[in-house]
């Protein structure tokens, strides 16, 4: 086994994408093992690799880690993306948890039935522009610093950028009323490790297409 973390998931974004983002932001090379069929998932379950019978799973430091939040916390701590003290860590956790809530809405949009899609899209836009983005805009305005917490690059910056870009894929002008978030997006996108991850050919995954949904559902069910 190489020294690189190894990620086990589908060849799609889902709950693994934030983990890919964090590793890339930390400058850590990683390998991926894609689950292509239901048998691939069954094999992992039967050999005891999945503590709770589900992916994502990451092999790192001799462990087979599951649960995306636990994996994210481990990467953040290991690679100095988790603030300098408990108070900063608490802030990072709050900001990240809110981002995850919005990310879940964005992530599940392609899976919505046709008659629910319009309402789901409206919910995404409403929550993004009225609940979540105003908070991050205010944070950046109030402290006037480049990063969300402690004027230091952290997991919160990485995950917010990921979600801002996903939101723009959904609605290109969604940041129109948030000038500080637009500046934040440009600034964080220009950090060398992030810039590299945003280039074509990286391990960043494209948006899920509706035509790919049935294939993923077959692996699950």
TrEMBL record:
Domain GST C-terminal per the UniProt entry, residue ranges: 85-208
Quote the InterPro entries the UniProt record gives.
Answer: Glutathione-S-Trfase_C-like, Glutathione-S-Trfase_C_sf, Glutathione_S-Trfase, Glutathione_S-Trfase_N, GST_alpha, GST_C, GST_superfamily, Thioredoxin-like_sf
Which GO BP annotation is one of this protein's?
A: xenobiotic metabolic process
E.C. number, please? 2.5.1.18
- SUPFAM superfamilies per the UniProt record, alphabetical: GST C-terminal domain-like, Thioredoxin-like
Residues annotated as domain GST N-terminal:
3-83
Q: A Gene Ontology MF term for this entry?
A: glutathione transferase activity
EC main class here is: transferase
Give the family from UniProt. Belongs to the GST superfamily. Alpha family.
Q: What is this protein called?
A: glutathione transferase
Higher taxonomy: Eukaryota, Metazoa, Chordata, Craniata, Vertebrata
Q: Please name the gene that encodes this protein.
A: GSTA1_CHICK
